[in-house]
Write a structure and sequence with these properties.
eight-stranded antiparallel β-sheet, homodimer, two-stranded antiparallel ribbon, Pnp Oxidase, Chain A, about 190 residues
């Protein structure tokens, strides 16, 4: 079940470096694309950075609306993640083409992708220079949600839910799932 | 064995979102810290973005030298990664304290961390505004190296080398290893 997450914990959704789905909405259209180049940028209030290439339809919608969401997709969605990262939504409706379902977000117009395990609703912080030079968008997270079956206490815990593990794209459709959960010992001087 | 990697493939070292070690050198001192907030920013020439907090000794050395490396550590180094991310090198030598060994890089003064599986030598692209506002450093990758036992053909393939898997920090010393390698099917319209 999707449950709200305190904003001060929102960075944890991306801290382990999963590949994301970026949704956007403007001019009566919505779109979804994959972005592996996304990361947290601050804790509280939480900020994120994401690369949105210049020629993409997502870029056009994000620049028009000043909003997007970053969703954390799962192994069960692997083919869809790869597909929406390879095709453009300018001419076609990727939601219908790849059987992705959306639901409304709470504080932005861009929708949430159903079946994901984490969701960040984001408002762009205007940095025109880095947007133009590096296709880099900086945004504040204004709402966060998590799938509670893979979130125990204060963090991700996928347990035996193999199909709900987040994924990490390398290149060319080769992904790694998020692997074993390991706790490092409290640092001690060696 | 550490072998050179073509610059056009350098983005693959970080594309799956591993936690990194950042090394730096200036004024006759070197340092190493952990950074989970690092990602590729461009393919060729490759660029990266990394968050280096204002109060850190690494920040001082990177600002003085305009250089750093991003190294990809392994599960075998988990305790060390957590430790160098928790302590400051300003007063103490983290290399000695946590038994990390360095070797010279090829094109920057910052050293490479031995035992890692990937290494990016980076030169800062001056963006004073985002450095100041977001602690965000943008850099060009000028040399790249990979441990060839976990790199098959053109990408990561950890196979059975569990201790050489890269790691992904969530929070508070909880990490995930890089998990199962899965190939998504070529996108097809559903």
């Amino acid at each position: 079940m999707r449950v709200p997450l305190e904003l001060r914990r929102a960075y944890k959704l991306l801290n382990h470096g999963p590949t994301t789905l970026v949704t956007s909405a403007a001019h009566g259209r919505t779109n979804v694309m994959a972005a592996a180049w996304a990361m947290p940028l601050d804790f509280d209030p939480p900020k994120v950075a994401v690369v949105i290439a210049e020629a993409t339809f997502t870029r056009e919608l994000v620049e028009a609306s000043g909003e997007f969401t970053l969703c954390v997709p799962t192994r069960a969605q692997l083919e869809q993640v790869y597909a929406v990262g390879s095709a453009s939504g300018r001419e076609e409706d990727k939601w219908a083409l790849y059987r992705l379902h959306s639901s409304p977000a709470s504080r932005v117009q861009a929708p949430l992708v159903e079946g994901c395990v984490g969701w960040l609703e984001c408002r762009v912080l205007s940095e025109p220079d880095v947007q133009r030079k590096y296709d880099l968008f900086i945004a504040e997270v204004v709402a966060a949600w998590v799938e509670d079956s893979v979130w125990k206490g204060t963090g991700w815990d996928f347990g035996g839910a193999e199909e709900l593990r987040s994924v990490h794209h390398m290149a060319g459709g080769v992904f790694f799932t998020t692997g074993e959960r390991v706790q490092a010992l409290k640092p001690e001087r060696k």
